Amino acid sequence: MSGTFLGMPSLPVFGIGNLHEHEPFPKAARRELSNPQLRANLGHATRTIRDKRLAVVSELPDWEELREAGRAIKESVMARLPELLEEFEANFTARGGTIHWARDAGEANSIVAALIRDQDATEVVKVKSMATQEIGLNEYLEEQGIAAYETDLAELIVQLDHDKPSHILVPAIHKNRSQVRDIFLREMEGVDPELTNEPARLAAAARAHLRRKFLSAKVAVSGANFALADSGTLAVVESEGNGRMCLTLPETLITVMGVEKLLPGWEDLEVFMQLLPRSSTGERMNPYTSLWTGVTPDDGPQNVHLVLLDNGRSAALADEMGRSALHCIRCSACMNVCPVYERTGGHAYGSTYPGPIGAILSPLLTGITAEENNSLPYASSLCGACYDACPVKINIPDILVHLRGEDVDSKRGKNRRKRAMPSQMDVGMKAASWALSSGKNLGLVEKALPLGRLAAGPDRKITKLPGIAAGWTQSRDIPAPPGQSFRQWWNKEHRAAGPDAAPAAGTDAPGPESAGPGSAGTEENP
Amino acid sequence: MYPATARATVSILERLGHEVIFPAGQACCGQMHVNSGYFKEALPVVANHVKAFEDDEYDVAVAPSGSCVASVKHQHPMVARRCGDAGLEARAAAVGAKTYELSQLLVDVLGVTDAAAQLGSYFPHRIAYHPSCHGMRLLRLGDRQLDLLRSVGGIEVAELPEADQCCGFGGTFSMKNADVSSAMLADKTANICGTGADLCAGGDASCLMHIGGGLSRQGSGVTTMHFAEILASTLENPAAVSGDVRLTTGRTAR
User: What is the ipTM of this complex?
Assistant: First the structure.
């Protein structure tokens, strides 16, 4: 597969793997919301990281300039991705590394498995990596008889529990330390049966478990946070040092990286090394940054491979509105500030990529019509907290709205072909479009206000609505409509009273005594 | 749904000596359509708004809603562009440039810093204040609304914990993702009730309808009110509040 020409396919090649919802988001969210332990763990964890991030971000006077630099660098990378990839390939290869191009998850998985088999290995140690989660590498390797051991503490917890990560940075954010102790006691070989839920004891148990793997593994698999085109260098940013062990001890190192991770050169890395730790863990600097350039004779891995993964990235790049989602550096700041994520957790999003970035990235990689991913762009109240927190200024709310438009338009065509009945939402939106596209039409609708008042009854509130609006009345009332609209009041009472009714013109601010006659609010609740 | 808010806006501006015009052709900003992905249906709504407001007979346009103003300023040109109407895009941008949210107009243009002194505002109640997301993040209103409220005579403003968290409204989000929306609302209303305030003020009728709807369903007795109505309230013509609302003077008003 080495040397396969990536090119720009005539039809977009969409991503496959762990990128899909298997049920609509509202349904998945409903299930997760009913788990009070999950909500308590998540609420506590996201609030803690949120506060830490805010503290280290506000101490930098040039944070906004850094964000803008990050955005501009990523935008320029996307604009000249093919040439930068070729530059990277030339430099990486010249330093003894081998490049493999993978069109999708299936190609990437089989490349990695073949490379592991070349070393006669049946087990690998893994550095925490989103790309390998995305392509479902662990599951694929298991089918091929190869055991993959996660070495990031949180990934290890999730793997031992046969669970899935629910957060980009903190995959086990949905578990508290007592749950972690129970998992270790149940699943970890040779664990001390007296293990407590003290963080230090838990970490020591994991360390003893992992050391055995580091010393025996011949092959390591990693992702990469950045790749520098001008030198052919790869970078992994981490906290624990377990990644460093994997990147230096085994003879063979296989890295899987999305093509969008590229940066032009070292001076660009400086910007991102300030943006990433502060946005991600809320630290000024991360404990371990590993950088490697091809093979260094007699030092570290002697077989160095890189699988460059497309898996829908070219398709996302072709979407003018959506392409900036590829700027993402996987810091997870957006999910830590997201009120939806905070309550549902990551599993509700189905895909490897949860939270606000997942709600745009997953449907962009797979196409909006794939599986249930068309429900993801609606998994947001558009509050905008994610855009404010994003270190590379991805306008997530605007892209969510854009993808909602893509979803609605894709269904228009489908419904016409199938001669299907339009949905309640379609009908409502069409009717509202008529009513709201002229003052005259709206004035006619407002004539019906007394009807709504009648429906509300004597207690002046509506407590039950039919159809899609039932979602509203499950937890909220609607007040009775007013007896008179503003338009009616303006025409009958205010304008009819003539300009003389207005207080005398003048720029001097009147005191309380001269309050005008139009005092509002008084007529509203008779 | 909330004509009192618009009437209050007229009252405040006329009190400051300005002439208020109500372009009769106007209807809606179309944000509901845009945010739900119905761009095609949004286009006539946007076109109607631009047509109604591009007249030269006024200096600035004002709306007592951060969300609607953000839609006019940010979404209208985008809708026109997406629908391939470059002419409408330019006209929409021009209308957006002279459109202000009420507190922006009052503070930045008209120099109102003391509502009690300059508007005669008097509202003897303890309130909490919820800054709506679009005003806060799209328009960067900062503390404009809150500062105006703090300067109202007789008022007591309680600190609302986690005030910057979304109330969960989000337009059709509240129906399409009703469970998540309700969970967000429950936290917001709990925070409001925890302040001991009798009333939650804000700058967006939609968020207030959502919060108020939740408070009403919970039977909390706490109600909501737009800050324009509080600014328009005076000693002689106090704003009517629903529910049992204690006065800061110690009496109970009905």
Answer: 0.94
Q: By C-alpha distance, which of A337, A345, A477 is closest to B189?
A: A477
Residues of A in contact with B23 (CB under 8 A): 439
* pLDDT (average), residues B60-75: 97
- Cross-strand bridge partners of residue A147: A123
For A445-460, the pLDDT digits (tens) are: 888 888 888 778 888 8
* Nearest residue to B70 (alpha-carbon basis) of B162, B133, B11: B133
Rg (C-alpha) for chain B, rounded Å, is 18
CA–CA gap between residue A341 and residue B185 (Å, rounded): 15
Q: Test A343 with B35 for CB contact under 8 angstroms.
A: no
Q: Which residue has the higher pLDDT, A466 or A14?
A: A14
Which DSSP letter does residue A370 get? S
Which amino acid appears at position B182 of this protein? Answer: S
A25 touches chain B (CB under 8 A): yes
Q: How far is C-alpha A95 from the chain's CA centre?
A: 34
Q: Tell which of A21, A382, A441, A445 to mutate to test the B interface (max B CBs under 10 Å).
A: A382
Strands A288-293 and A233-238 come out as antiparallel
Q: Where are the domains of chain A?
A: 1-420, 438-496
pLDDT score at A7? 52
Q: Which among A375, A411, A410, A424 is positioned nearest to A23, based on CA atoms?
A: A375
Query: What is the assigned CATH class of domain A1-420?
Result: alpha beta
The crossing angle, in degrees rounded to 10, of helices A396-418 and A355-366 is 40
Average pLDDT, chain A: 90
Q: Enumerate residues 334 to 353 of chain A having a beta carbon within 8 A of any beta carbon in chain B.
A: 339-340, 343-344
Q: Between chains, do A476 and B176 touch, taking CB under 8 Å as contact?
A: no
State the Cα–Cα distance between residues A315 and A364, nearest whole angstrom: 7
Judging contacts by C-beta atoms under 8 Å, the chain B residues touching residue A405 are 37-39, 82
Put simply, the answer to whether B177 touches A504 (Cβ < 8 Å) is no
Domains of chain B: 3-105 (no CATH), 113-244 (3.40.50.11810)
Non-local CB neighbours of B214 within 8 Å, separated by 6+ positions: A475, A476, B182, B185, B186, B188, B189
What whole-number percentage of chain B has pLDDT above 70? 95
Asked if A339 lies within 8 A of B168 by C-beta distance, the reply is: yes
The two tokens of residue A440 are 């005259």
Integer Cα distance of A353 and A148 in angstroms:
21
For chain A, what percent of residues have pLDDT higher than 70?
Answer: 91
Q: How far is B158 from chain A (nearest CA, A)?
A: 22
Exposure letters B6-36 (e unless 16+ CB within 10 A, then b): bbbbbbbbbbbbbebebeeebbbbbbbbbbb
Alpha-carbon distances, residue A411 vs A171, A407, A417, A430 (angstroms): 34, 6, 10, 15
- Does any CB of chain B come closer than 8 Å to the CB of residue A481? yes
Q: Is A11 exposed, middle or buried (0-12, 13-18, 19+ CB in 10 A)?
A: exposed
Residue B2: list chain A partners with CB under 8 A: 482
**Is the Cβ of A480 closer than 8 Å to some Cβ of chain B?**
no
Extract the tokens encoding B124. 């003897």
Q: How far apart are alpha carbons A423 and B221 in whole angstroms? A: 37
Test B44 with A433 for CB contact under 8 angstroms.
Answer: yes
Distance in angstroms (rounded) separating the CA atoms of residues B160 and A1: 59
